[in-house]
Amino acid sequence: MTFIRILLLAIVSTAVPPDLSDTIAVTRAKTPSEETLVLGRAGWSQVEKPPENLIHAEIGGLRNDKGQVVCAIYSSADGFPKKEEKALAHVTSSISAGHAVCEFPGLTAGTYAISVFHDENSNGKLDTNFMGIPREGVGASNNAKGHFGPPKFGAAAFHFAGSRLELKISVIYL
Fold first, then answer.
1. Exposed, middle or buried, 112 (CB in 10 Å: 0-12/13-18/19+)?
2. Backbone φ and ψ of 95, nearest 5°
3. CA 52 and chain centroid, separation
């Protein structure tokens, strides 16, 4: 957009009565994934971006702030929750005051499940005893719990319609 057009828009916006409009939008793109600039009476405002598809998981119940939290998101029962290579995405998060946050951006609408573990020694894997019982804290979406093993995908699964979804997951220590 040329300087003259911007100047004309600024002049027009000051001539518009306050009850009709407080801002004039100047659209640079027609697709919802691109940005829109807004010209207001006070001048340019920040660039507005459309909301991104995001799953935001708040992890609580951590017994200390040592290490990190490792989260994985799955779109099917295949590999959930033990086979990390089958996950759509992995996120590691630092811990503060017994809480952590894992975010999964850019996902499409669908059914998902999240597995979480407290990697206290930061070795990137879930440590278990000789019987396979976790030595570190574990959790899943819906706070699903397993019976004589990890939770099933169906118990941890949730529907994501798009936009933004807030989840809370509690870690337990076995």
1. buried
2. -115, 140
3. 9
What are 80-119's pLDDT values in tens digits?
Answer: 999 999 999 999 999 999 999 999 999 999 999 999 999 9
Distance from C-alpha of 97 to C-alpha of 117, rounded to nearest angstrom = 16
Cα distances from 93 to residues 70, 137, 171, in angstroms, run 7, 14, 14
Nearest CA-CA partner of 167 in 76, 55, 80: 55
Please compute the mean of the pLDDT values over residues 27-54 and round it to a whole number: 51
Domains of the chain: 3-44 (no CATH), 54-170 (2.60.40)
Rounded to 5°, the CA angle 130-132-138 comes to: 130
Q: How far apart are CA 72 and CA 158, in angstroms?
A: 14
